[in-house]
Design a protein that fits this description.
Blueprint lengths: L8 H23 L49 E10 L16 E10 L15 E3 L8 E7 L10 H9 L3 E5 L20 H12 L8 E3 L4 H4 L2 E11 L1 H11 L10 E5 L18 E6 L8 H9 L4 E6 L6 H4 L5 H17 L6 H12 L4 E6 L2
Parallel strand pairs: 1-3, 4-5, 4-7, 7-8, 8-9, 9-10
Antiparallel strand pairs: 1-2, 1-6, 2-5, 10-11
Helix pairs in contact: 1-6, 3-5, 8-9
Length: 380
């Protein structure tokens, strides 16, 4: 079981950060992806988190525009899947200077939106990737919103297959490219903007629940038909690596908690944004997923996060897994299946209020076997 009291927590956090920064040169090649289904396996390290901005402030939140009952939990493949790329710009916040580039007076946030589409879904084996139709008409009804935060040197499209899997089970999944951390960042990706990344996700919530406010948004507008697809009263967040640190901050950090988020899943993340924890975030459930052979973010960071966060939390340990393959190669092996499907089960339980969700998660891990994954539980 995880230990809730660890005097070495901050020391190990600093050591993990040093390892991450040392591995950053390897990350761009490891995490870059064209979004194709046939992702190439790699053993190169993907890097994560960073230095902290002492001037960061807590995110202000607004109520969702409307509350509507979401469809009940559904199996993978229930809905056909569509996707759209939108170029959003948050005009209310700046982008740090980097690699000779001056500070920008806004934050460019290209987003990938993957959603339940209109029509009838074709039968789908859970081991197959859902087909995704670009610019498909949205389906009927309202669906919970999931936020996906990418790793350093990756992009939103690197996670399209997992996003499509969740969309086929009844979620609208939105993934921004963080301005300085994505593979196309001018001067190369850097983790130094980490403290601003939870705000990117809060901005996405704003625009997809139509609460951004006049004058705060530029770039593409989110089409009304996509906003109408979102149940803004049900929101989850998932992130990998640097993105894992980002969503943990969004869920629990005193710097940047967003109260609209119902549940958080962190894949191989770091604890830097929860060295100071929001005391009001204690009941938000957290799922940690980490490999024991992660050479970029040491497995001990899962324990560090669990020690920092006082909430119901679960740890899936991927036995012998590293930092990239289980998370960036869907259906590559049993561990990668656990990564994708456990997130769905967890969000079904805590975002869709499905009383069977956690039972299904436990069964998933049990059936994978102790040579692949184990599950531990901590918290109130």
């Amino acid at each position: 079981m995880l230990h809730l009291s660890d005097p070495n927590r901050r020391h190990r956090g600093r050591a993990a950060l040093a390892a991450v920064l040392a591995a950053a040169a390897l990350l761009a090649g490891a995490c870059s992806s064209d979004g194709s289904d046939g992702a190439t396996k790699t053993t190169a390290a993907a890097a994560t988190v960073t230095t902290v901005d002492a001037n960061a402030t807590t995110t202000e939140t607004t109520e969702p525009a409307d509350e509507a009952e979401s469809p009940p939990p559904a199996e993978i493949g229930t809905y056909p899947v569509g996707k759209r790329m939108l170029d959003l710009v948050d005009g209310s916040r700046t982008t740090k200077p980097h690699a000779g580039q001056p500070e920008q007076d806004s934050r460019a946030l290209p987003v990938l939106v993957v959603y339940p589409a209109a029509g009838e879904a074709a039968p789908l084996d859970p081991a197959d990737n859902p087909e995704v139709e670009e610019d498909a008409d949205p389906g009927d009804g309202r669906f919970p919103l999931l936020l996906m935060s990418h790793g350093l040197g990756a992009r939103n499209i690197a996670y399209e297959t997992q996003m499509a899997t969740w969309a086929s089970a009844g979620y609208v999944v939105v993934a921004p490219d963080h301005p300085l951390a994505n593979s196309d960042s001018v001067g190369g990706p850097t983790p130094v903007d980490i403290f601003n990344q939870p705000g990117d996700l809060s901005y996405v919530i704003d625009v997809f629940t139509d609460t951004a406010g006049d004058g705060e948004s530029t770039g593409d507008e989110v089409p009304a038909e996509l906003i109408e697809l979102v149940d803004g009263s049900r929101i989850g967040a998932v992130g990998h690596s640097l993105g894992g640190a980002t969503v943990v901050g969004l869920g629990f950090g005193d710097c940047c908690t967003d109260d609209r988020v119902d549940a958080v899943v962190s894949w191989a993340g770091l604890e830097l944004l929860v060295q100071d924890v929001d005391p009001d975030a204690g009941d938000r459930p957290l799922l940690l997923v980490h490999g024991t052979k992660d050479r970029t973010v040491d497995y001990s960071q899962a324990e560090v996060i669990s020690t920092a966060v006082d909430s119901p939390r679960w740890l899936i340990t991927l036995v012998g897994a590293g930092h990239v393959t289980p998370f960036l190669t869907p259906h590559a092996d049993a561990a990668s299946a656990v990564v994708t499907y456990s997130a769905l089960d967890f969000f079904d339980a805590w975002v869709k209020d499905d009383p069977t969700g956690m039972d299904r998660l436990e069964t998933l891990v049990d059936e994978a076997g102790p040579d692949v994954a184990t599950l531990e539980v901590e918290g109130p």
